[in-house]
Amino acid sequence: MDAVEFLNIELKYLRVQEDAVMDGLTEEQFNWNPPGSANSIRATFVHLVATEDYYINKVLAGGERLWDQQGWGEKIGLSAPPSATHSWDEIHQATLSLVTVLDYARAVREATEAYLPRLTPEELERPVVLYGRDRIVADVLTRVIVHSALHTGDIAAVRGLQGAKGLRV
Asked: 85 falls in which pLDDT band (50, 70, 90)?
């Protein structure tokens, strides 16, 4: 198995995990604020999706984020997605539509799926800049996988705090 095949397999498994953790989620569970300093599912999931959007569409594909291209901020009701460079305060106060956020996630997933056929061993070695640092495409794709997997676990834990099943897989 080469690196391209490995990354594609891992991305497919990541989708299984993301779908599983969001399966059967209600608006109330999505918008529930856990005690302490834990993030809500809405904050974590929007961050997870928006980060993939940025990594794939801006950093790797060299275009604009779907967030900007397609007006997802306005549709979702946020000025910007929570990130390492944008405050999480706005999303902590917001009540969001689960359906609208899932529509954004679907659009980002489709854009990622459209990018993946470009992957070749040479593409994986292509230099890119991520947060002001030189990286390669393979590093950014690995970050997509690890970042999303970590936050999928966060969402499962918050579901558990609500008495719901976190992950079924």
From this structure: confident
Q: Is 140 helix (H, G, I), strand (E, B) or coil?
A: helix
User: In DSSP terms, which residues pair with 130 in a beta bridge?
Assistant: 133
Which CATH code fits 3-161? 1.20.120.450
| Of residues 51, 49, 29, 48, the one with CA closest to residue 40 | 29
* In the chain, domain spans: 3-161
How many C-beta atoms lie closer than 10 Å to residue 115's C-beta? 17
Answer yes or no: is pLDDT of 165 > 90.
Answer: no
Beta bridge partners of 135: 128
Residues 120 and 4 sit within 8 Å (Cβ to Cβ): yes
| CB under 8 A, 24+ apart: contacts of 113-121 | 115/56, 115/57, 115/60, 115/61, 116/8, 116/11, 119/4, 119/7, 119/8, 120/4, 121/2, 121/3, 121/4
Distance from C-alpha of 18 to C-alpha of 13, rounded to nearest angstrom: 9
Q: What percent of the chain has pLDDT over 90?
A: 91
What's the pLDDT score for residue 168? Answer: 67
pTM beyond 0.70: the answer is yes
- What pLDDT score does 87 carry? 83
- The CA distance from 155 to 141, in Å, is 21
